[in-house]
Amino acid sequence: MTEKDTYKTITKASDEVLFKDKNSKFFGYAFPVTTEELVKVHLEDLKKQHHSARHWCYAYQIGKTENEYQFRANDDGEPNNSAGMPIYGQLQSFDVTNVLIVVVRYFGGVKLGVGGLISAYKTAAQMALEASKIVTRTINQDIQLKFEYKDMNKVMRVIKEKNLKIKSQTLELDCTIIISVRLKKSKAVLDAFKTIFNVKVNVLKN
C-alpha cells in the first residue's frame, strides 16, 4: 500500500454564511489554520465581532497525515456533542485538514432540542465549507545534500533528471543543497543520491 501524499485544505477564509432555524441565527466561518495559536486568534476576532452572541462553537483539525492530526471540538455551553462534533463531522465529510470551522449562534427564544442543534450546527458548518475554495496539496519531504564542489555536476544531473525543486543552496568548497521531494518519490530520490560517492544525504523533519 502506497503512503498517501496529498491532503485537502482551504486557501483562505470563507465568506460568512448564515443558517436560520426558529429565530436562532447560526453564522458559519471556515479558516485555514496550521497552529492552535491561529485558532485562538480567529476565535477572539469573532467574539469581538459577535459580542452579543450566546455561543461560539467550533472544531478544527491540524496536520497533513493521519499520524500527525491534532483536532478538537468545542460545544461552548451547548449540550454535550450537539455542536462541536457535528461541526467536526463536516471536516471529516469534506476530508479537509488544517481548517477551523466556527459557528456563532444567536439564540432566537425557541429551544431547538439536541436534534435540532445537531442539524443546525452541521448545516452551518457544511455551508461554510461549501463557501470555501478547497484545494489538494502534495505532502513533500525535505532532503539535505552535502558534498564537495567537485561532485557538483553529478548532483545537479540527478536534480535535473528527476525535476527536483531546490529550496536552498550554498555552493562553495563544501556544498549544501536542500531539495523538496513529493513523499511518494522520496525513496527513489534518496536511492539515486546514495549511488553518488561522497554525497551525504539527510532527511529533514518538516
UniProtKB/TrEMBL annotation:
One Pfam assignment: Impact_N
One cellular component term (GO) for this entry is: cytoplasm
* Record domain Impact N-terminal: where: 22-129
Q: Which GO terms describe its biological process?
A: regulation of translational initiation
Record family assignment: Belongs to the IMPACT family.
Q: What is this protein called?
A: YigZ family protein
Give the source species.
Gelidibacter salicanalis
